[in-house]
Each structure stands twice: as C-alpha cells, then as structure tokens.
Amino acid sequence: MAEFTTGEAVALELPIARIPTRATAFVIDLLVQIALLFGLVAGLAVVLVPADLDSAWTDAIWLVTIVFVLVGYPVAFETLSRGRSVGKFALGLRVVRADGGPTDFRHALTRGLCGAIVDFWLFGSFGAVAVITSMCSPNARRVGDVLAGTVVVHAQATLPMPALVVPPPWLAGWVGRLDLSGIPEDLALAVRQYLTRVRTLTPAAEAGIGSELVQLVCARLQVKPPVGYPPVQVLGAIVAERQRRSLTPRAAGLVRTG
C-alpha cells in the first residue's frame, strides 16, 4: 500500500501494482498491438502494392504504422479511459498521478513515448530497463512513470470525484490571472501535503514551512507573493485554482492565452 495526497488534500491508500501483474497486463496489451499491427499491415498492403510507390515512401509508411501502434495505442487508451489500457482493465490496474488523481493526455503521451524509446523497445532491451527501474523504485515506477509523474495501482473501482476546494474570495482575482503550468508536480504535491497537515503543525512550523513553499511557488510562477496574507491562504488559493482548471481545461487555456 502507498499513501497519496490528492489535489483536494485528502489522504488515500492504494495498493501498488508490482512487476508480475504489470508484466501480465503488458503481455495482453502486446497481443492486442500485434493484432492491430497485422490488421493495419494487411489493409495497407492492399493499398500500397498496386500503387507501386517509391521504396522510400513505402518504408516511411511502414515506420509510421509501427510507431502509431507502439505509441498511439497506449496513449489513446490511457487518455480515453483515464489510465487504463486493455491489459490494465483485464487485471484491474489503473495509471494515476503521483497524488492519486486521474491522468490526462500529457501523462499518457509521456508514458507512451518513454515506453517506446526507453523502457521497452528502442533502448529498453525488450523491457529490461522497465523491469530494472521498477525493481529499484519503492512504488514500482518505470522511467515513463517517473517522467510523467504517475504510478500504476490496483483500482477496481472508479476513482471518486472529490468536491472542489473554494479559494479565499480576496485572492480569487490574483490567482485567476496566474499561469499555473509552471508549478512542477513534486512542488504541487508538497503544497498539498502541507495543507493536509497544517492543523497538526505548531504555529512556528506552519508559518515557516508555509512561507518557504510560498516563495518556491511564486518563484516558479515568476510573480511576487501577495502581501498581508498568511501562507495557508495563498497556497490554498493556488491549489483550488489548479483544481478548477483541471476540471475546466477550456478556462485554463483562456488564462494562458489571454
């Protein structure tokens, strides 16, 4: 079991998926990919053979097809199913963020590219890299998980959608103008853990740790901290705004482009 602190500052315990289970899910996905590849190859052969294309064009088409199957399959399934491929669904596994929240296209793309390049195929020695890194990681994370900020867990039930945190009204305008994409996942996780445990801290520790986190976050965002507000309110407003934008991606895009 591993403890996760969600974006809503709620502690969750989820069982980590280890190598034997993940390997079985990988084999199932591999069989699906092979079937998909054979189907695409058969279809393309019907089109390309009569066309009598130049060999360079033919090689390029085959290469794109292979990359599409190796990368496109896991990215598409994990994006549409919020962290599940066919193999993971069969074994009751799910990819979640390091804070226990659902993944999105960015996480799936990072895992898919790393799987094809580093963990399994191009430089992965047919999965040796993935196995070694998973064995060395306390949460059985391969390189793609580390770079994407994800963990594979046993999760038969759908992850619940927690209630949205409401930011302090007097900081809503300030935080609403910020581009929060500059906050890395590890720093965001530290902020959420601080908010979860703030009631258990002494006043001195609450002020000291909170002030340090505010300085780190504002340095990443390249803004000055708002004056006259306690750290717990500033950090709470930032976490609440990140949650709001994760549920309304269109609004987040308008903030970044506005």
UniProtKB/TrEMBL annotation:
Residues 19-149 form the RDD domain. The keyword Membrane applies. The chain crosses the membrane at residues 26-48, 60-80, 113-132. InterPro entries: RDD. It holds the Pfam family RDD. Keywords: Membrane, Transmembrane, Transmembrane helix. This is RDD family protein. It comes from Nocardia bovistercoris. It is a multi-pass membrane protein. It is found in: Membrane. GO terms for cellular component: membrane.
